[in-house]
# Entry
Amino acid sequence: MHFDSLVTALDLIATFAFAIVGARIAASKGLDYGGIALIAAVASISGGTLRNLFMGERPPWILDSWLFASIGLAVLITIIAKETKPVGRFLLALDTFGLAVATVSSANFAISQNANFIGIVALGLVGGVTGGLLRDVLCQVEPVLLHRETIGTSCFAGAIVYAFLNKFGISEPITVISAGLIIVAVREISIVKDWHLPRI
# Structure
Protein backbone atom coordinates (compact mmCIF):
# COMPACT_ATOMS: atom_id res chain seq x y z
CA MET A 1 0.00 0.00 0.00
CA HIS A 2 1.28 3.47 -0.90
CA PHE A 3 2.25 5.52 2.16
CA ASP A 4 -0.29 8.29 1.41
CA SER A 5 -3.05 5.68 1.11
CA LEU A 6 -2.03 4.22 4.45
CA VAL A 7 -2.18 7.65 6.08
CA THR A 8 -5.67 8.20 4.66
CA ALA A 9 -6.83 4.84 5.96
CA LEU A 10 -5.41 5.57 9.41
CA ASP A 11 -7.16 8.96 9.44
CA LEU A 12 -10.49 7.24 8.76
CA ILE A 13 -9.85 4.72 11.54
CA ALA A 14 -8.83 7.48 13.96
CA THR A 15 -11.97 9.44 13.08
CA PHE A 16 -14.03 6.35 13.83
CA ALA A 17 -12.19 5.81 17.12
CA PHE A 18 -12.81 9.37 18.34
CA ALA A 19 -16.41 9.26 17.10
CA ILE A 20 -17.34 6.02 18.83
CA VAL A 21 -15.82 7.14 22.12
CA GLY A 22 -17.68 10.43 21.82
CA ALA A 23 -20.92 8.65 20.93
CA ARG A 24 -20.59 6.29 23.91
CA ILE A 25 -19.99 9.15 26.33
CA ALA A 26 -22.97 11.02 24.89
CA ALA A 27 -25.14 7.90 25.27
CA SER A 28 -23.99 7.46 28.87
CA LYS A 29 -25.13 11.02 29.59
CA GLY A 30 -28.61 10.28 28.26
CA LEU A 31 -28.43 12.37 25.08
CA ASP A 32 -30.84 11.60 22.23
CA TYR A 33 -29.81 10.34 18.79
CA GLY A 34 -29.16 13.87 17.54
CA GLY A 35 -27.00 14.66 20.56
CA ILE A 36 -25.04 11.44 20.12
CA ALA A 37 -24.38 12.28 16.46
CA LEU A 38 -23.33 15.84 17.31
CA ILE A 39 -20.90 14.76 20.05
CA ALA A 40 -19.45 12.05 17.80
CA ALA A 41 -18.82 14.62 15.07
CA VAL A 42 -17.35 17.22 17.42
CA ALA A 43 -15.08 14.66 19.07
CA SER A 44 -13.74 13.35 15.78
CA ILE A 45 -13.32 16.33 13.44
CA SER A 46 -12.90 19.45 15.57
CA GLY A 47 -9.17 18.88 16.14
CA GLY A 48 -8.40 18.69 12.44
CA THR A 49 -10.75 21.59 11.75
CA LEU A 50 -9.04 23.90 14.24
CA ARG A 51 -5.60 22.80 13.06
CA ASN A 52 -6.41 23.63 9.44
CA LEU A 53 -8.04 26.96 10.29
CA PHE A 54 -4.91 28.02 12.18
CA MET A 55 -2.96 27.50 8.94
CA GLY A 56 -5.54 29.22 6.74
CA GLU A 57 -6.72 25.98 5.10
CA ARG A 58 -10.16 24.45 4.63
CA PRO A 59 -11.24 21.89 7.27
CA PRO A 60 -10.46 18.27 6.30
CA TRP A 61 -14.12 17.20 6.33
CA ILE A 62 -14.82 19.61 3.47
CA LEU A 63 -12.12 17.92 1.40
CA ASP A 64 -12.82 14.31 2.42
CA SER A 65 -16.47 13.32 2.81
CA TRP A 66 -15.46 9.78 3.79
CA LEU A 67 -14.79 11.12 7.28
CA PHE A 68 -18.55 11.37 7.74
CA ALA A 69 -18.88 7.69 6.86
CA SER A 70 -16.63 6.86 9.84
CA ILE A 71 -18.70 9.10 12.09
CA GLY A 72 -21.98 7.65 10.82
CA LEU A 73 -20.76 4.11 11.41
CA ALA A 74 -19.73 4.95 14.98
CA VAL A 75 -23.12 6.53 15.71
CA LEU A 76 -24.98 3.60 14.16
CA ILE A 77 -23.03 1.05 16.22
CA THR A 78 -23.68 3.04 19.41
CA ILE A 79 -27.42 3.30 18.74
CA ILE A 80 -27.79 -0.37 17.81
CA ALA A 81 -25.74 -1.56 20.79
CA LYS A 82 -27.80 0.59 23.20
CA GLU A 83 -24.81 0.55 25.54
CA THR A 84 -24.77 3.33 28.14
CA LYS A 85 -22.07 2.11 30.51
CA PRO A 86 -18.92 4.22 30.95
CA VAL A 87 -16.17 3.83 28.36
CA GLY A 88 -14.30 0.55 28.90
CA ARG A 89 -10.71 -0.49 28.36
CA PHE A 90 -11.18 -1.44 24.71
CA LEU A 91 -12.60 1.97 23.79
CA LEU A 92 -9.81 3.64 25.75
CA ALA A 93 -7.33 1.73 23.59
CA LEU A 94 -9.17 2.91 20.47
CA ASP A 95 -9.06 6.47 21.78
CA THR A 96 -5.31 6.16 22.35
CA PHE A 97 -4.85 5.00 18.77
CA GLY A 98 -6.91 7.96 17.61
CA LEU A 99 -4.74 10.33 19.65
CA ALA A 100 -1.58 8.94 18.06
CA VAL A 101 -2.89 9.22 14.50
CA ALA A 102 -4.44 12.66 15.00
CA THR A 103 -1.29 14.08 16.61
CA VAL A 104 1.06 12.65 14.01
CA SER A 105 -1.23 13.65 11.15
CA SER A 106 -1.45 17.20 12.51
CA ALA A 107 2.32 17.47 12.93
CA ASN A 108 2.76 16.20 9.38
CA PHE A 109 0.25 18.77 8.14
CA ALA A 110 2.16 21.53 9.95
CA ILE A 111 5.36 20.48 8.19
CA SER A 112 3.60 20.49 4.82
CA GLN A 113 2.59 24.10 5.56
CA ASN A 114 6.21 25.05 6.40
CA ALA A 115 5.52 25.63 10.09
CA ASN A 116 8.49 26.11 12.42
CA PHE A 117 9.46 23.67 15.20
CA ILE A 118 7.13 25.19 17.79
CA GLY A 119 4.31 25.36 15.25
CA ILE A 120 4.71 21.65 14.46
CA VAL A 121 4.49 20.72 18.13
CA ALA A 122 1.59 23.10 18.83
CA LEU A 123 -0.50 21.91 15.88
CA GLY A 124 0.23 18.28 16.73
CA LEU A 125 -1.08 18.92 20.23
CA VAL A 126 -4.14 20.84 18.99
CA GLY A 127 -5.04 18.12 16.53
CA GLY A 128 -4.76 15.44 19.17
CA VAL A 129 -6.59 16.90 22.17
CA THR A 130 -9.19 19.40 20.89
CA GLY A 131 -11.90 16.87 20.06
CA GLY A 132 -11.79 15.15 23.44
CA LEU A 133 -11.78 18.46 25.30
CA LEU A 134 -14.85 19.79 23.47
CA ARG A 135 -16.57 16.41 23.79
CA ASP A 136 -16.25 16.46 27.57
CA VAL A 137 -17.29 20.11 27.88
CA LEU A 138 -20.42 19.56 25.79
CA CYS A 139 -21.29 16.41 27.75
CA GLN A 140 -20.81 18.34 31.00
CA VAL A 141 -18.16 16.05 32.43
CA GLU A 142 -14.80 17.07 33.86
CA PRO A 143 -12.42 17.07 30.85
CA VAL A 144 -10.11 14.06 30.99
CA LEU A 145 -7.41 16.22 29.39
CA LEU A 146 -7.20 18.40 32.50
CA HIS A 147 -6.85 15.80 35.22
CA ARG A 148 -6.26 12.20 34.08
CA GLU A 149 -4.26 9.82 31.91
CA THR A 150 -1.67 12.39 30.70
CA ILE A 151 -3.44 12.78 27.35
CA GLY A 152 -1.86 16.16 26.70
CA THR A 153 1.54 14.93 27.84
CA SER A 154 1.48 11.93 25.51
CA CYS A 155 0.46 14.05 22.51
CA PHE A 156 3.06 16.67 23.42
CA ALA A 157 5.80 14.04 23.67
CA GLY A 158 4.83 12.48 20.36
CA ALA A 159 4.70 15.85 18.59
CA ILE A 160 8.16 16.76 19.91
CA VAL A 161 9.59 13.43 18.74
CA TYR A 162 8.03 13.99 15.31
CA ALA A 163 9.43 17.52 15.05
CA PHE A 164 12.93 16.46 16.16
CA LEU A 165 13.14 13.47 13.82
CA ASN A 166 11.91 15.58 10.93
CA LYS A 167 14.46 18.28 11.77
CA PHE A 168 17.28 15.73 11.48
CA GLY A 169 16.02 14.35 8.19
CA ILE A 170 14.83 10.94 9.38
CA SER A 171 12.62 9.17 6.84
CA GLU A 172 8.89 9.89 7.10
CA PRO A 173 7.71 6.31 7.85
CA ILE A 174 10.22 5.98 10.71
CA THR A 175 9.27 9.42 12.04
CA VAL A 176 5.55 8.63 11.94
CA ILE A 177 5.91 5.22 13.59
CA SER A 178 8.29 6.49 16.30
CA ALA A 179 6.10 9.44 17.26
CA GLY A 180 2.96 7.30 17.25
CA LEU A 181 4.55 4.65 19.46
CA ILE A 182 5.66 7.30 21.95
CA ILE A 183 2.10 8.60 22.25
CA VAL A 184 0.63 5.13 22.71
CA ALA A 185 3.31 4.11 25.21
CA VAL A 186 3.03 7.24 27.39
CA ARG A 187 -0.76 7.09 27.60
CA GLU A 188 -1.02 3.33 28.07
CA ILE A 189 1.60 3.36 30.82
CA SER A 190 -0.13 6.28 32.52
CA ILE A 191 -3.44 4.37 32.48
CA VAL A 192 -1.93 1.13 33.78
CA LYS A 193 0.24 2.81 36.42
CA ASP A 194 -2.31 5.52 37.24
CA TRP A 195 0.19 8.25 36.50
CA HIS A 196 -0.84 11.91 36.48
CA LEU A 197 0.90 15.25 36.25
CA PRO A 198 1.65 16.82 39.66
CA ARG A 199 -1.10 18.87 41.29
CA ILE A 200 -0.94 21.80 43.67
